[in-house]
Automatic annotation (TrEMBL), chain A:
Gene3D superfamilies membership: 3.30.70.20
Domain annotation 4Fe-4S ferredoxin-type: ranges: 1-30, 32-58
Residues spanning the membrane: none
Gene source species: Candidatus Ethanoperedens thermophilum
Signal sequence segment: none
GO molecular function terms noted in the UniProt entry: oxidoreductase activity
Superkingdom of origin: Archaea
Protein name per its UniProtKB record: Ferredoxin
A UniProt-annotated Pfam family: Fer4
From TrEMBL, chain B:
Domain Digeranylgeranylglycerophospholipid reductase catalytic per the UniProt entry, residue ranges: 176-259
Gene Ontology MF term list: FAD binding; geranylgeranyl reductase activity; oxidoreductase activity, acting on the CH-CH group of donors, iron-sulfur protein as acceptor; oxidoreductase activity, acting on the CH-CH group of donors, NAD or NADP as acceptor
Name recorded for this polypeptide: Digeranylgeranylglycerophospholipid reductase
Domain FAD-binding: 4-171
Catalytic activity field: a 2,3-bis-O-phytanyl-sn-glycerol 1-phospholipid + 8 A = a 2,3-bis-O-(geranylgeranyl)-sn-glycerol 1-phospholipid + 8 AH2; CDP-2,3-bis-O-(geranylgeranyl)-sn-glycerol + 8 AH2 = CDP-2,3-bis-O-(phytanyl)-sn-glycerol + 8 A; 2,3-bis-O-(phytanyl)-sn-glycerol 1-phosphate + 8 oxidized 2[4Fe-4S]-[ferredoxin] = 2,3-bis-O-(geranylgeranyl)-sn-glycerol 1-phosphate + 8 reduced 2[4Fe-4S]-[ferredoxin] + 16 H(+); archaetidylserine + 8 AH2 = 2,3-bis-O-phytanyl-sn-glycero-3-phospho-L-serine + 8 A
Native species: Candidatus Ethanoperedens thermophilum
Amino acid sequence: MTVTVNRYKCGYCGACVSVCPRAALELVETWIEINNACNDCNTCVNICPIGAIESVKE
Amino acid sequence: MKDKYDVIVVGAGPAGSSVATTAAKAGLDVLLIEKRQEIGDPVRCAEGADKEGIKRHIKPDPRWIAAEVKGSRIFAPDGTKLQISEELFGAEVGYVLERKIFDRALAEQAVSSGAEVIVKTRATGLIRKNKQITGIHACSIGELVDVKARIVVGADGVESKVGRWAGIDTTLAPKDIETCAQFLVSGIEVDEYCQFYLGNNIAPGGYAWVFPKGRGMANVGIGVLGSRSDKGMPVKLLSKFVKHHFPKGKIIEMVLGAVPASGPIEKTIADGLMLVGDSARQSDPLTGGGILNALDAGVMAGTVVASCIEKDDVSEKALMEYERQWRETIGKKIRKALVVKEKLVTLTDEQFNTLAQSIKGECDSTMGVFDIVLALFRANPKLLWEFRNLIK
């Protein structure tokens, strides 16, 4: 289970990375990488200022 | 890149360049790495900064001063206006910067002081010997490398990982972050004032801003408290705000970002490691301003790094001097700002209107942000009872 980032929308600002309780996200230059520590808590989904993160639960 | 330095600074924003400049001037061998291929770009900032504060760190240069402002106006939801002067606005406005050029000028200052700067190089982990941090793993233009150092300084911004790797929990709760969007709007009429708009329909738990950038342009942005945001809210609200206030404006740039609004965190040091700037959550939780705090903390960190290395002791205990210095100065300010922010985010639009109207008559261009907070408290002690401890 993991969230997905729409890289065509993502503004690579790192807001999602800073709130991830499991440090599962990483901002690498102009894209976000998600590792398997993600437990789909969706904290990042509501933080993203442009709505680029999709929850698998949706 | 060598395989060993006295100090490695991770992140070449204002905090990182300030540490690197200070440490290099003290004669240390400093490596400053930046994960992006360009320093200062993309911008994630409203670019307002305290003029006098900035001048303490770098000689003013018209190349990175987009505009100078005379003061600020704050608008309550019903339009009630409070106007305050630039000199007394605390640490926020005076200059509106061109961060792309400003950040690079700060990095140039680090380089001319003797630091080595390497771009497109991202820290991926810490090297440890027993408990002590002794360097970083990094990915440098696609190559994995290990670099050793006596001290690692994390200046890796809002998305900081360096602290977490060292066991310092810098994770921001949604209530402790402002999620932001900004458009550079062109072809509009703006005067020499920064404007702030409050209101739960405008920016829940945050505010909207208009910062003049010269030549008929302005940074128009919105910050929303993380706990009150939902998917893509900042951009949606900003589009509405711009359409309403600048129907003829043309959007020529889009900026996204987030600001730590947690107030001081528990610790910012470990054996062989320190955090500075947004990564240390040193930004102002009320205004969101972070540049000057980052520059000031960078000087403190760089100075303590130099004296610790000279004494050959980079233990957490020795680095406590940095912790003590920044808490005594920046820490005190942001702790107060946090009290005000925590209250403001609970207010209704009617309460914002009442507050603004209560001091409208006595608010003049000689007042600073904190004067306003105090005037508000005097006029509304019951509503703002939480502010009583802010008055000495």
